[in-house]
Write a structure and sequence with these properties.
447 residues; mainly alpha; Preprotein translocase SecY subunit; 2 domains; 3-stranded antiparallel sheet; 5% strand; globular
Length: 447
């Protein structure tokens, strides 16, 4: 405990780090205050606060920190920006123009950022209209259409752009990744209420306090399991040739390439969830198919059919996303240019094949573990955990929380070590993580 307080004192002594942390807290406070400002022309008393507790709407409401159900000016949060980032990133794989931009360095990244912002505006405008039509009932409108729709579409779009600007400011002037921290704060904001609801339901039912304590212990175990997945790496030894420049010797030492067990991060869960929402969407557009037993099973988040297909999709998307984000050929070429080689492996094609084989082997257990984490909330609901509290037992929310916290702690530790202070941990160091990629190379989360 003394070590912990000493570290906090060291953090406060470093002026740059202290200012960055205070800036981060200030920007997050502005975001939380804005999330309670209701859209103009909306009667907040007429809103149904319980309409967004389940399914996709419940997930979006969690990421938005409750703004979605409150019809806030920031109801859509950063999800349109993350969607635009994913689209632009996929375009960077298939469209030659975006592939060229990725190779142009800083100027290329600026153009990609510009395209991402334009696409964010378009996605937000479409989602804003859909949100107003589906979530705001006529009795909650104080202004008649079409003025209500036009006005609040502009307000929701501006709110999303403002949240995106806050995230960029946190990244530049604060500590950690801004977009990721905004999503994390939104998720954490739902934890106290979920904790209280679960405590009241358990203490007032069979099992009492003992059952609640068992749930908390199980939650800690899942968090530890998730940390192992996020930080798990396979080190590949690399030997660099010895070079003598002037009177100094360079190279001749063995280093390691850390290949992450979960290189895809949270993206496979996001893609799989998007596909699993298709049956419910089909049922909403075609009411006659809503009685189909197969579609009903796929739309039920606690059914074994839903979770089986969900887990298989996560495994497939993990391989897919790892294949498009990790390039063994590029790694082998860079290693060869720098005079490095893997002991016992020929440089060039053989090295690329070896790295690809290692990635394939470690991706399988990583994808299976990720699928297990994703379906744990459904398993928790089956044993009686409330639907709100069960979301913290796994899935997208838990992986984002763990990843963002580790990433932020790593940056704080880097500041401490640069000033010759001890890190946050007495033994070992906080390892980095593979965050949610964006078109600009930044790492927000999502979603």
């Amino acid at each position: 405990m003394k070590k912990f307080f000493t570290t906090l004192s060291n953090i406060w002594k470093i002026e740059d780090l202290r200012v960055r942390i205070l800036n981060t807290l200030l920007f997050l406070l502005i975001y939380r205050v804005g999330s309670f400002v209701v859209l103009p022309g909306v009667n907040a008393a007429a809103l149904n606060a319980d309409q967004n507790k389940e399914g996709l709407l419940g997930l979006l409401n969690m990421f938005a920190g409750g703004s979605f159900s409150r019809s806030s000016i920031m109801a859509l949060g950063v999800m349109p920006y993350i969607s635009a980032s994913i689209v632009v990133q996929l375009l960077g794989i298939a469209v030659p123009y975006f592939i060229k931009l990725q190779k142009e360095g800083e100027s290329g990244r600026n153009k990609i950022n510009q395209w991402t912002r334009y696409l964010t505006i378009a996605i937000t405008a479409v989602q804003a209209v859909a949100y107003l039509k589906s979530q705001i009932t006529p009795d909650a409108m104080l202004i008649g259409n079409p003025y209500f729709t036009i006005l609040n579409t502009c307000v929701l779009t501006a709110g999303t752009l403002f949240v995106m600007w806050l995230g960029e400011k946190i990244t530049d002037k604060g500590i950690g990744n801004g977009i990721s921290l905004i999503i994390m704060v939104g998720i954490i904001a739902q934890l106290p209420s979920a904790f209280i609801v679960e405590f009241q339901s358990r203490t007032g039912g069979p099992g009492g306090l003992i059952t609640f304590i068992v749930e908390i212990v199980a939650l800690l175990g899942v968090v530890m399991f998730t940390i192992l997945i996020v930080q798990g790496t396979r080190k590949v030894a690399v030997q660099y040739a010895k070079r003598i420049v002037g009177n100094k010797q360079y190279g001749g030492v063995r280093q390691y390439i850390p290949l992450k067990v979960n290189a895809a991060g949270v993206m496979p869960i996001i893609f799989a969830q998007a596909l699993m929402f298709i049956p419910a969407t089909i049922s909403s557009f075609f009411p006659s198919m809503s009685t189909n037993s197969f579609l009903m099973a796929l739309s039920n988040y606690n059914s074994w059919q839903h979770n089986l297909i969900f887990g298989i999709l996560i495994i497939l998307f993990t391989y897919f996303y790892t294949a498009i984000t990790v390039n063994p050929n590029q790694m082998a070429d860079d290693m060869k240019k720098n005079g490095g080689f893997i002991p016992g492996i020929k440089p060039g094609k053989s090295t690329a094949e070896f790295i690809d084989g290692v990635i394939s082997k470690i991706t399988l257990p990583g994808s299976i573990f990720l699928a297990i984490v994703a379906i744990i909330p459904a398993l928790a609901s089956l044993v009686g955990v409330s639907s709100i509290f069960s979301r913290f037992f796994g899935g997208t929310s838990l992986i984002i929380l763990v990843g963002v916290v580790l990433d932020t702690l790593q940056q704080i530790e880097s500041h401490l070590l640069m000033r010759h202070y001890d890190g946050l941990m007495k033994t070992g160091r906080i390892k980095g993580r593979a965050s949610i990629p964006t078109a600009s190379g930044a790492t927000p989360p999502v979603i």
